[in-house]
UniProtKB/TrEMBL annotation, chain A:
Subcellular compartments: Endomembrane system
Composition-biased stretches (Low complexity): 31-72
Organism: Geranomyces variabilis
Protein name: RING-type E3 ubiquitin transferase
Keywords associated with the record: Membrane, Metal-binding, Transferase, Ubl conjugation pathway, Zinc, Zinc-finger
Primary site of residence: membrane
From TrEMBL, chain B:
Organism the protein comes from: Geranomyces variabilis
Catalytic reactions of this protein: S-ubiquitinyl-[E1 ubiquitin-activating enzyme]-L-cysteine + [acceptor protein]-N-terminal-amino acid = [E1 ubiquitin-activating enzyme]-L-cysteine + N-terminal-ubiquitinyl-[acceptor protein]; S-ubiquitinyl-[E1 ubiquitin-activating enzyme]-L-cysteine + [E2 ubiquitin-conjugating enzyme]-L-cysteine = [E1 ubiquitin-activating enzyme]-L-cysteine + S-ubiquitinyl-[E2 ubiquitin-conjugating enzyme]-L-cysteine
Segments traversing the membrane: none
Key words of the record: Transferase, Ubl conjugation pathway
GN (gene name): UBE2W
GO process annotations (BP): protein ubiquitination
Family annotation (InterPro entries): Ub_conjugating_enzyme (IPR050113), UBC (IPR000608), UBQ-conjugating_enzyme/RWD (IPR016135)
Descriptive protein name: N-terminal E2 ubiquitin-conjugating enzyme
E.C. no: 2.3.2.23, 2.3.2.25
Length: 239, 149
C-alpha cells in the first residue's frame, strides 16, 4: 500500500502507472495471503518455476508415447461403441441437446417426455435426482444451430382436465358467497361482506396466496387491502 | 415413443450380449423385445453362491420412461425383500425408477440386494401379501423402509 499512482501530480504515462499500481496491489494482496496461509507460498514458488516447464514438456510425450497411444486407442474404441454425447434416456447421440443445471445431457424430446409425467418423481434429473425445471434447461447450439429446441416443442400431449375441487365449507366459499349477496342484498349485505373479510385474510396469510411467499402482510398492507376491498364492495352496491 | 423403446432395447440387448456383467445372462428376448428372461447367478461368497434364478422383465411401450415389470420366475430366492410369488420390493423398480437406469443396472441392483442379505428368510408379511397381491408387482403400493439389505 506504499504506492500512490492516483496522487501523482504529473503522471507521464497514466495507464502504465495505473497498471503498475494494480500489479503492485495484486502483489501486496498476494503477500498478505501468503502471510496468512502457508499453502499460497508454495504457489509462488511454482509460479517462479513455471518458465522452466515448457522445456520439460517436449520430452514427456516421447517418454510416455506408447502408453498414451494405447489409451488413445482404447478411448477410440469406446467412442466407436458409444457416442460421446449420449442422451441419458434414449442412449443415442442427443438430438436437440439440452443440458440440465446439474450437467446431464438429454435430447429435448426425451427430457420433455420425462418431465411431463404425472409423478412428482419425474421432476428429478434421471441421473442425479436434482430438481429439473424447463426454464432452467440449457440448450446446446452447435455451429449454425440457432433455434432453442424448447421453442419448437414436441407436440404437447393432451392433458387431462382437472375435475372441479370438492367444495369445502367456510373460508373461500363463504367469501364467494359475499359477492352475489352484496349485489342483491343492498346495504345489509355490506355488513355481511365485512364480517367475512377477516377470514379472507386468514387464508391469505396461512395458505400463502400472496405470490407464493408465505409471509403475513404487515398492518399497512392489510389496511390498504381492506380499503381496496371496501371500495370494490361499495362499487357493487346499487345507488 | 415406441421408436425410443425399440432403439433403446435393441441397444441394451446388443450391449448385454456383447459384454454381460458377471453372473448375468440373457436367456431369451422376444422378437418384439417386450418380454425378456434373464438368468442370474448368486455372487461368490454370498448366501446365494451356486444358485441360479430366472428373472422376467416385461416392458411397456413407455419404457424407458416407465419402469419394467421385474419378477422372479420358478425358483424364487429366499430373501427378506422378495415375496414367494416372485415380487421384489426394490424402490428403483417402482417410484424411484429413472430412465437413466438400464436392464443391466437393474440386474446388478437385484444381485447386490441378494448379496447383502445376512439371513435367508421371507418378508414377515409374505403370507398376507401373496394372498392379496395382483399379478403385476407394479399394481402394489410399496413402502420402502429398510436400507440395510
Amino acid at each position: 500500500m506504499t504506492d500512490q499512482p492516483a496522487a501523482n501530480p504529473l503522471p507521464s504515462q497514466p495507464q502504465e502507472l495505473l497498471n503498475e499500481g494494480l500489479r503492485h496491489r495484486a502483489q501486496v494482496s498476494f503477500a498478505e495471503q501468503s502471510a496468512t496461509s502457508p499453502t499460497s507460498t508454495t504457489t509462488t514458488t511454482s509460479e517462479a518455476a513455471s518458465p522452466s516447464t515448457p522445456a520439460a514438456i517436449p520430452t514427456s510425450p516421447q517418454s510416455a508415447s506408447p502408453a498414451s497411444a494405447s489409451t488413445a486407442k482404447s478411448l477410440d474404441d469406446d467412442a466407436n461403441d458409444e457416442p460421446e454425447f449420449m442422451c441419458n434416456i434414449c442412449l443415442e447421440t442427443a438430438s436437440n441437446p439440452i443440458v440440465t443445471l446439474c450437467g446431464h445431457l438429454y435430447c429435448w424430446n426425451c427430457i420433455f417426455y420425462w418431465m411431463t409425467g404425472n409423478s412428482p418423481f419425474r421432476r428429478a434429473c434421471p441421473v442425479c435426482k436434482a430438481l429439473v425445471e424447463k426454464d432452467k434447461l440449457v440448450p446446446i447450439y452447435g455451429r449454425g444451430r440457432k433455434t432453442d429446441p424448447r421453442l419448437q416443442p414436441v407436440p404437447e400431449r393432451p392433458r387431462a382436465e382437472a375435475p372441479p375441487q370438492v367444495v369445502r365449507q367456510g373460508g373461500w366459499d363463504a367469501f364467494r358467497f359475499a359477492g352475489p349477496r352484496a349485489n342483491v342484498g343492498g346495504n345489509g349485505a355490506v355488513v355481511v361482506g365485512f364480517g367475512l373479510f377477516p377470514s379472507l385474510f386468514g387464508i391469505q396469510m396461512t395458505v400463502g396466496g400472496m405470490g407464493g411467499t408465505r409471509q403475513a402482510m404487515n398492518p399497512a398492507q392489510q389496511q390498504a387491502f381492506v380499503s381496496r376491498a371496501f371500495m370494490m364492495v361499495w362499487g357493487y352496491l346499487p345507488d | 415413443m415406441s421408436n425410443i423403446f425399440t432403439k433403446r432395447l435393441t441397444k441394451e440387448l446388443r450391449d448385454l450380449q456383447a459384454n454381460p456383467p458377471a453372473g448375468i445372462l440373457i436367456d431369451k428376448a422376444d422378437d418384439d423385445l417386450k418380454l425378456w428372461r434373464v438368468v442370474m447367478s448368486g455372487a461368490e461368497g454370498t448366501l446365494y453362491q451356486g444358485e441360479q434364478f430366472k428373472l422376467q422383465f416385461k416392458f411397456s411401450n413407455n419404457y424407458p420412461l416407465e419402469s419394467p415389470e421385474v419378477i422372479f420366475l420358478d425358483t424364487v430366492p429366499i430373501h427378506p425383500h422378495i415375496y414367494s410369488n416372485g415380487h421384489i420390493c426394490l424402490s428403483i423398480l417402482y417410484d424411484q425408477w429413472s430412465p437413466a437406469l438400464t436392464i443391466s443396472s437393474v440386474c446388478l441392483s437385484i444381485q447386490s440386494m441378494l448379496s447383502s442379505a445376512t439371513k435367508k428368510e421371507r418378508p414377515p408379511d409374505n403370507a398376507m401379501y401373496i394372498m392379496t397381491a395382483k399379478k403385476s408387482p407394479k399394481a402394489t403400493t410399496w413402502a420402502f423402509h429398510d436400507d440395510k439389505v
